[in-house]
Amino acid sequence: MNVFKRCVLASLCVLLVLSASVPAMAQTYPVPITADQAFDAMVAQKDPLSGKPQTVVLVDIRTRAEFFWVGAAAKVNQIEFLDGEKVVPDYGKVTLEHDGMFIVYNVKGRNKRALVQKVAKMTTESIAKSIPYKVWNEAAGKSEISPYFTDEIRKLEGDNVVLILFCRSGDRSGEDQCGTVVNSDGFDAVYEIDQPDKETGNGGFEGNTYFDVFNGYRGFPGRDTWTQVHPSVSWKDAGLPIKIGAKLPDYPPK
Fold first, then answer.
1. How many CB atoms lie within 10 A of CB 103?
2. What is the CA radius of gyration of the chain?
3. Segment holding 242, helix H or strand E
4. How many CB atoms lie under 10 A from the CB of residue 3?
5. Residue 25: its pLDDT value, please?
6. Cα separations (Å) of 254 from 6, 132, 151?
7. Whether 87 contacts 79, CB under 8 Å
8. In the prediction, which pLDDT does 1 show?
9. Closest among 170, 133, 150, 161 to 32, alpha carbons compared
10. Which of 6, 91, 142, 219 could form a disulfide with 43 if both were Cys (CB 3.0 to 4.6 A apart)?
């Protein structure tokens, strides 16, 4: 073996030893995923990117008013039709599509579609844990970071725990705000619902207003956000289930 080959082999051996001795760097910011990925990961209890079985916790960091009045991320336990038929959708996933005219779901793996006007009632259940990052200070007339946020997040830490965060549009859940407090030190991974290109503000629960091109409205199923430079990946734009008036946890936490 010539001198050149021996030098190359020696260099490779050194690199292998060094790479084995250096620990992997911890993720220190939430990784953006879509609302669809977040829903599927939550109900299946699997990491949204690797598919590995995990304890997945979906955390709504919006204010308590947003959680209660605007709506909570939910799943559908049962669809009751006007003709009396009752259906349990697979994984509780029902999406509102085609400008709100149809619901789309699976039953035992078979894709189903039905007109909304034929639905009598849907029974929904909140699947997100409310831990507000900011709370409203009535006296000061502004929002402030909740003094309980860090402690409540720390209560969720554990082996095989994956955290998925979301706010209204992806700003509060990003690395510049909530991401400076929440990192993967106590979790296997931390994600947020936002545009995968990290152009924050196009995800969360409602997405972007896009300079009011949608008449001031934020997310709703059927919006043509694909025409925007950064399409919305929000819960509402995906047409995923929402529960209005979901039960709020105690505040301050007990």
1. 23
2. 22
3. strand 242-243
4. 7
5. 40
6. 65, 15, 12
7. yes
8. 52
9. 170
10. 91
* Both tokens assigned to 185: 């030190």
What predicted TM-score, i.e. pTM, was given to this entire model?
0.86
CA–CA separation, 135 and 32 (whole Å): 24
CA atoms in the 13 A half-sphere facing the CB of 73: 30
The widest CA-to-CA distance across the chain, in whole angstroms, is: 84
pLDDT value for 7: 40
Beta strand pairing call for 94-97 and 102-107: antiparallel
Q: Which two tokens stand for residue 134?
A: 């900011």
Q: Count the neighbouring beta carbons within 10 Å of the beta carbon of residue 177.
A: 17
> Residue 205's closest CA among 89, 66, 15, 43?
66
d(CA 158, CA 83): 47
Domains of the chain listed by start with CATH number: 25-73+128-213+230-236 (3.40.250), 74-126 (2.30.30)
Give kind and range of the element (H or E) at residue 39: helix 35-44
- List, in sequence order, every beta strand (DSSP E) within 31-128: 31-33, 55-60, 72-81, 86-87, 94-97, 102-107, 110-115, 119-126
With H, G, I as helix, E, B as strand and everything else as coil, classify residue 6.
Answer: helix
pLDDT at 89: 98
Helix (H, G, I), strand (E, B) or coil at 119: strand
State the Cα–Cα distance between residues 102 and 56, nearest whole angstrom. Answer: 29
Give the pLDDT confidence score for residue 238 in this predicted structure.
Answer: 96
Q: How far is it, in rounded angstroms, from Cα 253 to Cα 232?
A: 33
